[in-house]
Amino acid sequence: MLASFLHAAVIAGTPLSFAILGEILTERAGKLNLGVEGLMLMGAVIGFKTALLTSNPFLALCGAALAGAAGALIFAFLTVTLRSNQVVTGLALTIFGTGFASFAGQGLAGFVVPEQVKSFFHPLPLPLLSRIPFLGDVLFNHSIFVYAGYFVVIAAYFYLYKTHFGLNLRAVGENTAAADAAGINITKYKFVHILAGGVLAGLGGAFLSLVYVPTWQDNITTGRGWIAVALVIFCKWNPIRIFIGAFLFGGLDIIGFRLQGLNIHISQYFFDMLPYIVTVLILIMMSVKDSKESSPPAELGRPYFREDK
Amino acid sequence: MIQIVKKGETSKKKKILIHISALSFALLTASLFILIMGHSPLKVYLSMIQGAFGTSYRLSETIVKTIPLVITSLGIALAFRMKFWNIGAEGQIIMGAFGASWFALSYPHLPSWILLPLMALGGLIGGGLWALIPAFFRARFRTNETIFTLMLNYIALKWITYLQNGPWKDPGALGFPKIPNFHEHAVLPRLFGIHIGWLIALVLVALSALFINRTKKGYEIQVIGESENTARYAGINVPGTILTTIFLSGALCGLTGMIEASAINKTLSVEITGGVGYTAIITAWLANLKEPLIIVVSFLFAAMIQGSSYIQMAFQIPQSAAEILQGLILFFVLGSEFFIRYRIHIRRNPVKGVS
Q1: Is any Cβ of chain B less than 8 angstroms from the Cβ of A89?
Q2: Which of A88, A253, A306 to mutate to test the interface with B (most CBs of B within 10 A)?
Q3: Which segments in chain B show pLDDT lower than 50?
Q4: How far apart are CA B112 and CA A103, in angstroms?
Q5: Neighboring chain A residues of B353 at a CB cutoff of 8 Å
Q6: Following DSSP, what letter does each residue of B223-276 receive, concatenated?
Q7: Predicted model pTM
Q8: Which pLDDT score, from 0 to 100, does residue A309 have?
Q9: Are the CB atoms for A41 and A226 separated by under 8 Å?
Q10: What distance, in Å, lies between the first and last C-alpha atoms of chain A?
Q11: Is A33 on the interface with B (CB under 8 A)?
């Protein structure tokens, strides 16, 4: 019972873990991208459409990643090259992405992901690991997409804290002028990580449309992009904490559905509110605690203009 | 060799010129989309204009769609001036509509002249209190208001969904989940063929402009927007000002909810906002948070929304095309600000060390 609940929580948390990781990389480069919701929707719709057209899971994933990257490119060009206001640009991206997804998704409602794609994402128990009692069932009996989620999170952790590039990236986010003076190509770092963030958000969206739902519905993300932005704060900009944040919210996502079977007399609509209420509570908690360790990259949200210094 | 230099003050004429060219580029980009879909952009744009202004009925529909945009933009502009990123207008509209509907459904037989002001009060308080929650935590603990206000949108929406399917469900609707229609006493009267919301909107524009430009509180809001630290050193009560301003911001959005529920829907439903809360963020920003400009930009956006619902019938272009167009316009205008603030020097002979 508990194992099956946690198993489902991991699946529900996977789109979030992609999106959170994407936003962590973006914010580490000093950019606050509020367009995650839009990016996820763009990835979700393009991934789904490509799957329908080609029945090829790889092409579907590539399509989703490219859609996310394209959206992020707009954001990067506007905020880095043209130094536009990050908050408003991110909002514009969400509005654009939402419109784009419902435009491109017109007439797709009711279509189901083709069998070839579906079977590619079927659960694949990992040898040995899946035989660990309890944990094996919860963590290692999943779709290859979920494993990919584990992999990118762990890889990003090592990238950020154990490589030269990661060190440079953190320098860009903490003190852009100093990083610039040290000869780091800050524009390149910002572009690369904003784009990587877009790719990850797009993939997170594709997980929803290809694996989780897996049919098309308008506004398929239902605010997960925004929750991801909030959870970046909860994760303290550290990828490894995504495992706590994303899977906790995965659990909240499905708890209402699970409890319905138990004859508890609380309206399902209150359970539907839970992820949003808990997000708010976490935001408050993190700000009340306000410790040095949980503070954002110092340059977050600030535009950088070399000639200003 | 390209060098970017900060400009001094750009003339007003030049600013308008830059914004208009940004708008043209957005329309050009959208034309590409329309071409790809196999339509003639010129025909589509012309019929959009026809759809928005072609007959007196369509024009009045455009004005009806302008009203909520204007009032909500005023509310958002108030918060944005303080750099308080209130993107929770959607939820504040919903809770305002909820407050108003509570009066409308609880006291349906009161005469209009008592009931309507009560509903307006319900709208103001519903929206204001809903905005006050994130404002309190922002003022007290510096909690991130952007995501907070947005989360409250979803919670408000779920709350109405609950009412619509549960305690407020119309028993006479044969099981269909809808809230009962208001009594006619709860419906706003018309003036010159359009519901009186247009007059309310104009009055509020004037009041907001006076408040921001002519009162001490308005001045303090602008100082906080420039720099919270400066405001603190100047002895301004920063938390207090945040709370009052955001209450007012939410109250304006809540009033929009009351007007839409009373004059348009004549009931409360989950579709009460029609996305106004998000569109108004764009209109407020494009109007540079200036009250008179808000009327102009809102009217243009209302025309675009009204026009795009018309081309949906004529060309089978989905209504969401309007959202894409809005996003594009905002992208181009955001990008164009660069050319207002900076000048690009192109030099023949590169100076060493400058890249």
Answers
A1: yes
A2: A88
A3: 353-355
A4: 42
A5: none
A6: HHHH-HHHHHHTT--HHHHHHHHHHHHHHHHHHHHHHIIIIIISS--TTSSTTH
A7: 0.89
A8: 47
A9: no
A10: 60
A11: no
Is residue B6 within a helix (H) or strand (E), and if so which, with residue range? strand B2-6
Beta bridge partners of A121: none
Provide the pairing of β-strand B342-346 with B194-195.
Answer: unpaired
* DSSP-derived secondary structure for B180-206: PPPPGGGSPPEETTEETHHHHHHHHHH
Nearest to A251 by CA among A219, A228, A267, A274: A274
pLDDT tens across A157-178, in order? 999 999 999 999 999 988 888 8
CB A212 within 8 A of CB A12: yes
A103 vs B154, B321, B337: nearest CB: B321
Within 174-203 of A, beta carbons closer than 8 Å to B belong to: none
Q: Mind telling me how many Å the CA of B320 is from chain A's nearest CA?
A: 5
Residues of A in contact with B282 (CB under 8 A): 91-92, 95
CB proximity list for B199: less than 8 A, separation 6 or greater: B191
The whole-angstrom distance between B328's CA and the closest CA on chain A is 7
Q: Determine contact, residues A68/A128, Cβ cutoff 8 Å.
A: no
Strands (E), A90-222: 124-125, 141-142
| A226–chain B Cβ distance below 8 A for any pair | yes
Asked if B141 lies within 8 A of A223 by C-beta distance, the reply is no
Q: Please classify residue B56 by burial: count the beta carbons closer than 10 Å to its beta carbon, then call 0-12 exposed, 13-18 middle and 19+ buried.
A: exposed
Domains in chain B: boundaries? 1-39+320-355, 72-301
Q: What is the pLDDT of residue B354?
A: 45
Q: Is A274 helix (H, G, I), strand (E, B) or coil?
A: helix
- With the C-alpha atoms ordered B284, B287, B293, B299, is the resulting torsion angle positive or negative? negative
- Give the DSSP letter string of A78-98: IIIIS---HHHHHHHHHHHHH
Across the interface, do B162 and A95 touch by the CB < 8 Å criterion? no
Average pLDDT, chain A: 89
Name the residue in chain B with its Cα closest to that of A226: B147
Å between A136 CA and nearest CA of chain B:
34
Query: What does DSSP assign to residue B215?
Result: S
Query: Rounded to the nearest 5 degrees, what angle is found at the Cα of A248, between the Cα atoms of A244 and A249?
Result: 125
Q: Of A306, A30, A17, A19, whose CA–CA distance to A168 is shortest?
A: A30
Residue to mutate among B330, B341, B354, with most A CBs inside 10 A, is B330
Q: Do B162 and A106 touch (CB under 8 A)?
A: no
